[in-house]
Amino acid sequence: MDHWDQFLAPYKQAVEELKVKLKGLRGQFANQRFHSPIEFVTGRVKPVASILVKANLKNISMDKLEREIQDIAGLRIMCQFVDDIQTVVQLLRNRNDFRIVEERNYIHHKKPSGYRSYHVVIEYPVQMVDGEKKILAEIQIRTLAMNFWATIEHSLNYKYHGQIPDEIKKRLQAAAEAAFHLDEQMSEIKDEIQEAQVYFKKNRETSE
Ligand code: 0O2
């Protein structure tokens, strides 16, 4: 096993475990026939190249990676409605299998790029063969519209090596506002949408 495999092993374990746990929450809501505040969950371990770029950018020495790069293990929870985000955050606060270290609300305080999301940094204990290892993981919680925007902006950032031309930047900022407006509109007809979803699900179940 090389140095990076060894370093990343607890992070890989944590991402797999957390994906199961968070997807489990979604399943529990579905079983109880409640609206699930969780639409879907994804997770990834940050690639070594990205860890090195971030460390370089933020002047973080190799011995401080574990503490200072908080999203080596990253989970993402997508929600249908903005209100669902607080419900999910509360669900996370109520758990006792990890400890919340920090919360960053980029919904009330959007980033200059237009980025909106709620970040929760947790300390998660992983059971390894040589004992328990506590690692940091970042859970990003956002609506489907916020996720759509962030995914597009992330690929443009990659394409332009972090230097998106001003004209495109402006369009992205406007698109972020449009996405937020879409979320607001959907929230206004939330009850109507949820009723339709329950009706749709019932009908599908009886016809199966
Ligand atoms: P990747 O490829 O997603 O892993 P900083 O990076 O300094 O802004 P910090 O302290 O690392 O911030 O924490 P923050 O901002 O809570 O979390 C960083 C992560 O949030 C990023 O990870 C992205 O996933 C997401 N993010 C933050 N700002 C933006 C943005 O403007 N646009 C998009 N698309 N995503 C953003 P990485 O490491 O950038 O990359």
From TrEMBL:
InterPro entries from the UniProt entry: GTP_Pyrophosphokinase, NT_sf, RelA_SpoT
Pathway participation: Purine metabolism; ppGpp biosynthesis; ppGpp from GTP: step 1/2
Pfam families per UniProt: RelA_SpoT
RelA/SpoT domain mapped to chain residues: 43-164
SUPFAM superfamilies found in the cross-reference section: Nucleotidyltransferase
PANTHER family (UniProt xref): GTP PYROPHOSPHOKINASE YJBM
Protein name as annotated: GTP pyrophosphokinase family protein
Organism: Siminovitchia sediminis
